[in-house]
Amino acid sequence: MADPDHYEPSHSAPQSAAPTAQAAQAAPTTHHQTASNPTTPATSTTQEATESAIITPSPAFTNDIPTRTDVAIIGSGPGGYSCALRAAQLGLHVTLIERDEHAGGTCLNRGCIPTKALLDAAHAAWEARRGERLGFGTRAQQPDRERLLDFQHNAVRTMVDGLESLIKARRIAFVHGQSAIDTATTAASATEPAAGDAQPMRTVTIDSADGTRHRISARHVVIATGATPRPLAEAPFGGRVLDSDAALELPVIPRSVIVIGSGAVGLEFASFWAAMGSSVTVLVRHGRPLSDWPRRVGASLKRGMTAHGVTFMDYTAVESCTTDDGTTTVTVSTRKGTAALCADYCLVAIGRTPSTDAPWIEQAGVERDSRGFIVTDPWGRTTSSDMASGMATGIWAVGDVTAGRQLAHRAFAQGRVVAETMAGLSPAPVRDELVPRVVFSLPEAASVGLDADQAKSGAFGTFSDVRETAIPMDGNARTAIAGDTGVIDIVTGVDGSAPDSPRLVLGVHMAGPHVSEFIGEAQQIVRNRIHLTEAALAIHAHPTFSEALGEALLKADGSPLHTM
Ligand SMILES: Cc1cc2nc3c(=O)[nH]c(=O)nc-3n(C[C@H](O)[C@H](O)[C@H](O)COP(=O)(O)OP(=O)(O)OC[C@H]3O[C@@H](n4cnc5c(N)ncnc54)[C@H](O)[C@@H]3O)c2cc1C
Ligand SMILES: NC(=O)c1ccc[n+]([C@@H]2O[C@H](COP(=O)([O-])OP(=O)(O)OC[C@H]3O[C@@H](n4cnc5c(N)ncnc54)[C@H](O)[C@@H]3O)[C@@H](O)[C@H]2O)c1
Predict the structure, then answer these.
(1) Does the C-beta of 115 come closer than 6 Å to ligand 1?
(2) Is position 116 annotated in a ligand binding site?
(3) pTM, full prediction
(4) 67 and 188 share a domain?
(5) Residue 154 vs residues 32, 35, 105, 125: alpha-carbon distances, Å
(6) Is ipTM > 0.95 here?
């Protein structure tokens, strides 16, 4: 381990990637170890080539570590990599630093991609059962978890390989190691910005797996270190109490699971396990899942998921969670008293904590809110009480470390905004209420824009005559044929600053089959302030699931065709 107080000038010697216990610890994902990768640097020595069969880090990592860069980005998840790709496209020299064995962060390695592979399998299982009912005799076999794990890992590998090729193609220096801002060196240069720079040069350290410490001088540093699963005080992770990382790598399909938390993670795993035949109980703190979404959406989703085999237990508070060799027992208080529930496993999915507790973030003077999220201006600039007034910190933050929706596509958009701002452009900042949310459960939920309370609150602009119009999706031909259920809830209002102007669509909130596929249309309408009457004129092909959105818009505009 390098001595953190020992200064070692940065150099461009090839980075050794010998495997160490430390490297193994720093690299929790292991599914990629045997992947062949077409992006192996041509400069690898024979010894490195021999080691490449066993070393953990991706061969896509750069061998020649730069000593100076325009932008050093710490973390290669959606926030970090999108910022890197865009900054490189705009002509900046970019160094992207990642401690995991591969690029992609949570989303590609332990989040969006592997879970969607599992949900794809869940759809296949339901379709197979449906086929059986329709006389195809395609009796679904017991799911083979080993094959499913292969399927899941292959999906991850494909996406990660693609990303690493893109990073290489954009000539980004992709450096493997644990990174930090070196405050001691930064402090010395803080008052002396490099000529022509509006902010100080920063020094970033990178501790490689072999114990070498590299230093890079950077005009800008972007913190994109992401978030980790939050444990329940009553049930620390371990053994049969799973976080989402452990649930993804679980080698078995459990007979029974208790899911604590009814947000996106809990509902997606509940749908997967239920489709695989597990007995799944979701503990809900309030009266419905997705309690921070419009009420009708959560209530409809609950009905739809119940029809897909998930049991919900409302108004529960977890009191304790104990596990022994073969089972886990969760004691909950409900409105009817206390109950003890037993299952093979328990998944705790109650949110994610920003990875901002490393001492270097505090030492760099980066301001955080009471929950640990990094405070930024709308363009991603961090703030620091230490800096002279008016001087930029030169430190930016994107993705799950910032307060707001912890979603990959929000991180993509933020990364782009930061890169363009650093390059001197003037991008429009990301507005959280315009970031669509999707839960890929069976059925799905999707939402964009304001709910009625937000529209009336005045916090997002002044709107008058706010109305909410809802239609059930059950009458939509494709939904009825599929035997599914759903709802579409449209919020409209009149711009308070132009009371004579036509009514606007302020929010679209949906539960039902395939709603993820037409939340993009809703986002276009809301973001571009398309008048309700114009939006309702769109002709949707018949019969499609998206026709339900067209019908809801017609109803909100006062001329429903297929509904009353
Ligand atoms: C199970 C699950 C499913 C999800 N599904 C979806 C989905 O379907 N759609 C969606 O939009 N979002 C989804 N998300 C959320 C999404 O994954 C995150 O919002 C997104 O990954 C955030 O990107 P990020 O770049 O901020 O952080 P991350 O993706 O967490 O990346 C941070 C990276 O920084 C690295 N790092 C941290 N500290 C250091 C350091 N000191 N030095 C070097 N490297 C460091 C980490 O190793 C990591 O690779 C899901 C999340 C989970 C857990
Ligand atoms: N499809 C997607 O886009 C997707 C999928 C998975 C995760 N994610 C993102 O990852 C992040 C984490 O997801 P998540 O589902 O863990 O968090 P979440 O914040 O979405 O949901 C947390 C749930 O846990 C409940 N909860 C909170 N504290 C609790 C407690 N002490 N006891 C019992 N219940 C409690 C909340 O009421 C809520 O239902 C979210 O921001 C989510 O949007 C997105």
Answers:
(1) yes
(2) yes
(3) 0.90
(4) yes
(5) 9, 9, 16, 19
(6) yes
